[in-house]
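Hi there,

I know you've been waiting on this one. I reran it after we fixed the sequence typo, so this is the corrected version. Both the input and the resulting structure follow.
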Amino acid sequence: MTALPFALSLVEPTMLDLAVRPRSARVADASEIHRLITLWSGQGLTIPRPAGEILGSIGDFIVARRVPDGRVVACGALEMVTGSVAEIRSISVDPAAPRIGAGRVVVRSLLAEASERGVDRVVLLTKTPDFFARCGFAAVPADDLPPAYAGPHLHARDRTTVGRIAMSIELGRDTVLPA
């Protein structure tokens, strides 16, 4: 677990961040979110989510839109596990928008949302740990995941930690994400 020693949030944007703008997803974004998730789930990098499930949980999603055309180039969801634990899921970036910071902007936005909701710890499972480490997450042993997440929440969706790295970040009032 990583506890970051500075304030979460409204970090000054970097040049990469100026290429994309995050916002809460809208119903009209559901098909683009589904397209991005399907692309990466087909490669085994995220878990498939049916269009109806995305639509039903659209309020959990953040999208990053490319400036200036407004096209959705990344997405991710924050799912509450308990009042103090949340999971980041379905981080997907359009391969046609490489290296413009869209994935990082989505993760930072989701962590800011978690902080606003009073979440103490955000967890995830990934096959791309280097990306999440750059976002402030640290790898943890799977048995160090919160019981509410590692137990019924994780296994209710037939997910597994096999082949994935468990990662976590501790949030606090003074947490800030690396730029």
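Quick highlight: Residues 1-17 have pLDDT under 50 and may be disordered.

Best,
R. S.
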